[in-house]
Specification:
Blueprint (H helix, E strand, L loop, with lengths): L2 E8 L4 E2 L5 E3 L2 H22 L6 E6 L4 E6 L2
Antiparallel strand pairs: 1-2, 1-3, 1-4, 4-5
Length: 72
């Protein structure tokens, strides 16, 4: 049974919330999707904020954090 997971961006000062989320079969699949998202956006984030240290925070539908992945 699939669940909804959300991918928020944080840099220690700012949080950009994901209001849409994605469906995944579980936390492992959500973390795999997060890796794909990071691969797609890492260059864009780095060029927009070269000194920033962004983290992609994966949370489930009730807001529990299931993983934190650096955007590099």
């Amino acid at each position: 049974m699939s669940q909804r997971f959300y991918f928020d961006l944080e840099d220690g000062q700012e949080t950009i919330r994901d209001g849409e989320g994605v469906e995944a079969d579980g936390p492992e699949d959500a973390l795999e999707a997060a890796q794909e998202i990071i691969a797609e956006m890492a260059g864009e984030v780095a060029s927009a904020d070269p000194r920033g240290r962004w983290t992609l925070v994966v949370r489930d539908a009730v807001g529990e954090i299931v993983g934190r992945l650096p955007v590099v």
